[in-house]
Amino acid sequence: MSASKAVVSKRGVQTYLVALGLVAMGLALVALCAAAWLQGVEPRWSVILFGLLGVYMVLLGIDEGWLSGLEVTPTHLRIRSFGRWEEHPIPRVEAVDALRDILGGGMQLVLIGAEGQAIRVPLRRYANAGFLAQALLDALWLHNKDLILMPRLARRLGQPPFGVFAAKKSRY
């Protein structure tokens, strides 16, 4: 895997603002639950439940802003979530679809593998989401000329090849 052929995700200012908002709301919820616990609010299980929800919001904000990432190479897709990388070989993918992401209104790709496994690729948090999607579709198309591309995705991004991983035209 050559570093010069990798397309790497870049976070935008909006991503950091959403992440900071999640962290702030989570901390406020935890503080509110701690105050409710100290005042003896009943039932106690509800205070614990909302406190755990606040902790989850903090963790989700940290992941959203600083621990997530995406890397596309001609042979692999690497997705980082909560600081842990997960690698998926590109030649196994047979179809691609796009869905609207409920959190940010952005796009996420769904890759369908030969074994029926679906891989969700969230793109909402990246400033270069369109370029990442084109790089991924290019890599998929290079390995499988019969790639099934759903119509809504083709309307939004166009048909591969885009030339992202072409030998002479590579920007990375």
What would you say this structure looks like, in words?
It is a single chain. The protein is an alpha+beta fold. It folds into 2 domains: 13-66, no CATH class; 73-157, PH-domain like (Roll). The chain is built from 4 helices and 8 strands; from the N terminus they run βααββββββαβα. It has a 4-stranded antiparallel beta sheet. α1 packs antiparallel against α2. Residues 167-172 have low confidence and may be disordered. It comes from Meiothermus taiwanensis WR-220. Keywords: Membrane, Transmembrane, Transmembrane helix.
Q: pLDDT under 50 segments (min length 5)? A: 167-172
**Rg calc:** 20 Å
Q: Output the CATH class name of the largest domain.
A: Mainly Beta
3D shape: elongated
Kindly, what is the distance between the CA atoms of the first and last residues, rounded to a whole number of angstroms?
Answer: 13 Å
What would you call the quaternary organization?
Answer: single chain
Number of helices, counting only DSSP H or I runs of 4 residues or more: 4
Integer count of domains: 2
CATH architecture heading of the largest domain: Roll
Describe the main β-sheet briefly: 4 strands, antiparallel
CATH fold name of the largest domain, please?
Answer: PH-domain like
Helix content: 40-55%
Q: Mean pLDDT, nearest integer?
A: 87
Q: What is the CATH homology-level superfamily of the largest domain?
A: Pleckstrin-homology domain (PH domain)/Phosphotyrosine-binding domain (PTB)
Organism: Meiothermus taiwanensis WR-220
Keywords: Membrane, Transmembrane, Transmembrane helix
Protein name: Amino acid ABC transporter permease
Transmembrane segments: 16-38, 44-62
